[in-house]
Each structure stands twice: as structure tokens, then as C-alpha cells.
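User: Sequence in, structure out. Go.
Assistant: Echoing your sequence, followed by the C-alpha cells.
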Amino acid sequence: MLDQDCLFCKIIRGEIPSSKVYEDEEIYIFRDISPQAKIHYLVVLKDHFAEASLMSEEQAETLGRAIRKIGLMKSELGLEGGYRIAVNTGDDACQSVHHLHVHVLGGEKLGESMC
């Protein structure tokens, strides 16, 4: 279920424009507007929840399918040389939108530091 006030839910509903690269019945993938690497996508589940601990078992399985989809699409997404997946949870991790989302970074040699 989508949240009326959530930025990502508004993007999924098409109320806010995005650079969509993939969509199916469960996930929405688009380019980050403030990229932290040459390639930076956000993978958002269409169900709204702030963090993984609030997910149902079924939603957790959807998250697994979303991560697998990234691997299956790596050539199409320009990630043949490798990629990093990160999930920020909570304010201390700088989660700016409280709708669980996966950052996918790549397209270049990434630094070893995660900061």
C-alpha cells in the first residue's frame, strides 16, 4: 500500500517525474537525482514501509526478487564491471526518505570506503 505523503510513493504513482529505468508490479527503479557514482539507481518496492524490520515475510521475499532483478539486468543497467548495493536505515544512516529503498552504485571503480 502506498502512502499519500511519501516522496517515493508519489514518484511510483507518477505524481512526481523521475528517470525511470524499470517497473513491474512489485518494484520501481529510477536514477538518483543526486548521484554518488557514475551510475546511481534507486530500487523502490511498491509497498510502503520505512525499514526492513517493518516488512512482512512476503515483502521481504519481494525485496529479494528486486535484488536478483538488479543482477539479471546488470548489462542493461551498465553495471557489467560490478556494483554496490546499500540500504540506509534511520537518521544516523542518513535515510532521507523513509520508504525503504536500495541504492545501486556502479559504472566506475568505487572507493573502498563506504562513507
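User: And one key feature?
Assistant: The beta strands are 20-23, 27-31, 39-45, 83-86, 101-106.
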